[in-house]
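Input sequence (142 aa), recorded before submission:
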Amino acid sequence: MSRYQVRELLPPSYSRRSPSTVGDWLSVVRKGLPGQGLEGLLQAMSLTRTEFCTAVNIPERTLARRLTQGRLTPDESEKVLRLGRVWERATTILANDVAALDWLKSPNGALENATPLSLLDADIGADAVLDLLGRIEHGIFS
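Predicted structure, token format:
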């Protein structure tokens, strides 16, 4: 099974020079992610559109409009990229998509019994989730 990579949020036209540095990614986010890659993230995560919109705090109607327009705003792009980064990290550490999705949707005592997915709508929540994934990776009990 191939692992999801955040680069998959970008259309094939980016393959000529895929972002690899912080500056490259900042440029993409500031311009706005193209909507084409969102379906791949939704499929990889097995999320409904409602779950996805809740996780990134973007109203469903707004997301539908952005997909029609073809590009997300910089703020929306940052939220989607954050979710993609957490998903990529979770699947790497937890070894597969099923385990990662189960972990993201399950209440976690180290996160005050919140589900990791419910915390991804804000940077501070995503930081806590990524920190916890790092602890899991290094065998540090919470």
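Checked by second reader. The mean pLDDT is 87.
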